[in-house]
Amino acid sequence: MGEGVADIDLHAPDELYDQVLKEIVGEEIRGKDHLLQLMQEFTNAKKEYDQIADALKMVKQTGYGVAAPAISDMVLEEPEIIRQGSRFGVRLKAVAPSIHMIKVEVESEFAPIIGTEKQSEELVRYLMQDFEEDPLSIWQSDIFGRSLSSIVREGIQAKLSLMPENARFKLKETLERIINEGSGGLIAIIL
């Protein structure tokens, strides 16, 4: 066997670089200025994501996740002298927002009434034809001119938008009280 050095010089067209970059980024790059703008947007998005990444991981595993606030988000109130009997101290109080994520299983049902039992059986057979080979393919099934995934997504979105603003506020308020005061005296009544 011989030894040696091989010097290989490869040239790739500039279009190949643009194509690979488009595949990685997932967006058409219109020039160097656009690439720089995208990099800034992605950097900002990455900073935001890094703050909630652990909470997102927790919520996927346990159904509940908390993103602790950054030091820059904390507001320190003015120190206050306090008295306990004959002794004195200083109260330092800080307020900071934390982001709480709760995973909620939202149900959506699509039950078209199409006519006879035979027609219903045909619809089931149509939906199940590719299901055994590729279970995810059922989402692309065309029903009444729309994909099943878009019909179900629309139903879930409608339910999510139905939560009234006052219920959102009460949920936030309750969570704040549990965190700040403890849950010892918590009684929840849902009507």
From TrEMBL:
It comes from the Bacteria. This is Stage IV sporulation protein A. Residues 1-115 form the Stage IV sporulation protein A middle domain. It holds the Pfam family SpoIVA_C. Residues 116-191 form the Sporulation stage IV protein A C-terminal domain. InterPro entries: SpoIVA_C (IPR046840), SpoIVA_middle (IPR046841).
